[in-house]
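Much of our argument rests on the idea that a fold can be written as discrete symbols. In the encoding step, the backbone of a single protein was reduced to a row of integers, each denoting a local shape. This step matters because it turns folding into a mapping between discrete strings. For completeness, the protein is quoted in full, as a sequence line and a line of structure tokens:
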Amino acid sequence: MMLELVECPHCGYKFRTNIKAVEEDGETTAVRNILYWKPKPRHVPSIDLDCPNCGKKFVHEVES
């Protein structure tokens, strides 16, 4: 488990969160349609986080 330091753009509060766990939780399973297959994304470029201080949602860019 690797924690990454994240700063809220609204209030400036800094906190650590496990980005990999949030990233894996947000991934979708493969979707099958009659016409085509849509695989799940290999890497999510950004994730939505909630600030534990002010409670506002913001988008955090995930580093590769």
